[in-house]
Write a structure and sequence with these properties.
Layout (H helix, E strand, L loop, with lengths): L1 E10 L2 E10 L2 E8 L3 E8 L4 H11 L9 E8 L2 E6 L15 E4 L24 E2 H14 L1 H6 L3 E6 L5 E7 L2 H14 L8 E4 L5 H8 L5 E4 L5 H10 L2 E7 L2 E4 L6 E2 L1
Parallel strand pairs: 3-6, 4-7, 8-15, 11-12, 12-13
Antiparallel strand pairs: 1-2, 3-4, 5-6, 9-10, 9-11, 13-14
Helix pairs in contact: 1-4, 4-5, 5-6
Length: 260
Amino acid sequence: MIKRVKVYRFAENKIKEDEDFVADEDPLNVVICSYECNEIVIMRTPGNDRELIAGFLYTEGLIKGVDDILEIRELGESSYYVRVNGREKEDEGYSSNSSSRLINSSCGFCGKNYLSKDVFKVNNWEKVKVNTILELPKKLFESQKVFKITGGVHGASLFDMSGEHIYSAEDVGRHNAVDKVIGHLVLNRMIPTNGILQVSGRLGFEIVYKASTVGIPIIIGISAPSSLAIEYAKVSGITLIGFARESRINIYTHPERIEL
C-alpha cells in the first residue's frame, strides 16, 4: 500500500536528494463471468481487494447481494476471477460492448453509459446528536494509516448511529474507498444498513449514489458537496453534511435527522 521513492526537495535555496513515501496505485485485473466473460482493470491502492470487487459489482448493479457472487477466486497477484448470477444484458445501463475496460482511480461510474434513473429511497429517520457528528472526522483520520504516512489517499469510514466505528478503507480513488466499505457490507450480509458514512474529501454525486444503494441515511464530507449530490440526496432522503471541521458543519439536506 506504500512505496518508498527518491525525491529532490527544494528548501532554503538548495536542492537536496531525499526519500519519500507515496501511496501505491496498481491495476487490479478482474474477469467477471455470467452470460459471457468481461475483463475490467481497476486502478486502486492494493488492500481490501475482495471488498472492492464486491462493492463495485453491487454499485454497478451487477449483483443484488452476496448470494449473486457464485465464486470469487484469486488468480495471482492483483488478479481475480469472479462468477456471478446472470443478470439481463445491458441491465441498468451497464455496457458489455467491450470485452476489456479500464477504470481509473478517479472514475466513479466507469461501467455506465449513462447515470441510472433509479433513485434509491432511504427511509430510516433515526435522529443523531450533532456532537456525535462532530466527532466523526477525527475518528476517520485516526483510521487512516496510509494517509498519515503518505498524505496521498482518500478515506471512508462507516459508523453506527451512535458513532461507533464499523469499518474503514483507504484508496487513491475516493469512490474506491467507498466501494470497499460497501463491499464489506455486501460480503457480511449487512445490507440495508443504518449508519453514517464519513469521507475525507468532497461529496460528489457518485459517492451519494453509492451510499444510497445500501440505505445509508447520513453522509458527511470534509469538503463541499456538488450540486448534483445535493439534488440526489434531497430526493433520496439522505442527510448530506459538508465542511465538517472542528466544531462546525453545513447541513445541505434533511436537517431533521440532526438534533442538538
